[in-house]
Structure formats: C-alpha cells, structure tokens
Amino acid sequence: MTLQLTDNQEVLSVPVLMYHSVCAEPTPETRALSVHPDALAVQLELLDGLGCTAVTMDTLVRHWRARALGAATEPLPARPVVLTFDDGYADFHREVLPLLLRHRAAASLYVTTGWLADAGAQRDGRPPAPMLSWGALAEVAAEGVEIGGHSHSHPPLDQLSGRGLRVELMRNQDLLEARLQRPVTTFAHPFGHSDARVRSAVRACGYRGACAVANAMAEPRQGPFALSRLTVRRSTTPEDFLALVQGRELLRLYGRDRVLTRGYALVRAGRRSLRRAARLGALGRAE
Q1: Mean pLDDT confidence for 87-95
Q2: 182-196, 247-261, 266-280 — which is least confidently predicted?
C-alpha cells in the first residue's frame, strides 16, 4: 500500500499523520510522542520534496463521503497528506503555526477543552504539558487551521456510560463552537480508542468524520468515523518518515504498536463486559 503519486484524481490511500507536542524540551509525560521543532521543519521539507499537498481532515472526509454518495466534489490533490495535532498544547501556537504558514500547509488541531490554560470553571483533568489559551486557539483558527473535537477531559470514551459519553462529546463541541464561532466537524478519538457505540455517538453529534490511530494509511473503506492515522514520534528518523508517509515498511515501523493495540482492545472489551454484568446484577437485585 503506497501513497498515490500520480495525477489520478481518485486517491484511495492517504497518510494522515498524528502529532502531539512539538517542543525542544518536552515534559516526561509527553516526551515519547513529542517531536522536536527542528524535526517537524525537516518533515515539512520532505513533504514538499515529495510534492505532497496538506489538506485538512474535514476536506478529506467531505471528499470521500461525497464520492461514496456519487455526488460532485472537487478532486483531492494528486499527493494529499493530512497533518493532525492532538490535545491542544501551547507549543502549537509557538512552534507549529509559523512552520505551517511558511510551508502554506493546512492542518487539523484536535482540542481537549477541559485542559485549556484558561478553562476556568470548565477545567477538567490534568494536562500533561502547558496548553493553549482560548485566545491563542482563536488566533490559530483565524490562520485557517481546522479545529476539531477531542473530548472535554480526554477519557477513554469506550469505557464511559452512555450519559458520560454524550456529556464528553457535547460539552467539547459546544464549547469550541461557541468560543470560536465556527462549526466543528471532525473528531479525534482520545487514545485512538473507539467502538461502534462511540462512533455512533460521535455521528449523532453531527460530526462528518473522526480519526483513530491504527498506524495504517487512511482509506475510504475504514468508514468516516474510524480513519487510520500514522504516529510521528520523537524517535522517527527522516528515513522512517519518508517510508511511513509513502505507506512503506509499516509493519517494521509499527508492528509492536499493533500488537499492543490488539491487547488493549481485549482488555477494554473485558472491562465493558464486567461493567455490563454488574449493572445487570444490580437490576436483578433491585427486582
């Protein structure tokens, strides 16, 4: 599976890159998934060298959904790539935004609203690093960066009750849309975890699409609410970056991650079954 490098307008395999903090001196909690600003600068140069064009997740989702319905849609660029950044760290404004503007690259930023620096009464959870303020987030949005949802307090959504899940999704989306005065149309699942119930709840909020992790190329067959992303880490070398963005050597780069992901999925499924059994037992006792 490789990145489409022709002028064919039917692009069916797209690298969606997942970043987190971009910082020279990350916190211990963010180090593994952080990227040095110099490394990001090199990666954007490599994308330019490949002739890639960065589009937002919303652009990709709208294109694939329209094609699935047989509707008219503008073609994607011949070599599309999606740059996504999770959580909403303060270094996005300081380090990432200038690089995006220099390269005229689109990006999607997925924000955990309860972690924002000036969340005030809406604060919820303990962020692992300094976060954007609402003012800085508005400046980022004004520069054309897509702002997406990432829950309010960053819990594993598939472990929440139905009511808890709805509150996390709606509180996050409502805050973003009210403060930024623009629709929020795509979502990133915290920790990359989702199940059919979570995806249905995300759809019910009016989102057009959502991304997971999976460490594979994004493809229409995955469905608009579980599109795969490729993790970019501090340990990602330029050679590895070139390979992953072209869909090459993904088993070598992500084999261990995929094994762990399958293991976590089994654990989460077991926890859900235990909670369901406990609820049924409680109902039985009540009767």
Answers
A1: 98
A2: 266-280
Q: Determine whether 147 is exposed, middle or buried from the number of CB atoms within 10 Å of its CB (0-12, 13-18, 19+).
A: buried
Q: For 6-10, 35-39, 156-160, 178-182, which range has the lowest pLDDT when averaged over its residues?
A: 6-10
- Identify how many contiguous H helices and E strands the chain contains and give both numbers: 9, 8
Q: How many domains does the chain have?
A: 1
CA-to-CA separations, 132 to 17, 31, 86, 244, in angstroms, rounded = 21, 18, 12, 29
Residue 257 has pLDDT above 60, yes or no: yes
CA dist 229 and 18 (Å) reads 6
**Are the C-beta atoms of 116 and 131 separated by less than 8 Å?**
yes
Residues spanned by the domain of 193: 16-255
**Does 274 fall in a domain?**
no
d(CA 169, CA 202): 7
Mean pLDDT (the chain) is 90
Q: Is residue 190 situated within a structural domain? A: yes
The alpha helices in the chain, defined as continuous H runs, are 37-50, 57-68, 91, 97-103, 134-142, 162-180, 196-204, 238-245, 250-286
276 falls within a domain: no
pLDDT digits (tens, 9 = 90+) for 228-251: 999 999 999 999 999 999 999 999
- Residue 231 one-letter amino acid: T
Nearest residue to 229 (alpha-carbon basis) of 262, 192, 261, 184: 192
Spatial separation of the C-alpha atoms in residues 62 and 109, rounded to whole Å? 17
Read off the tokens for 251: 């088993």
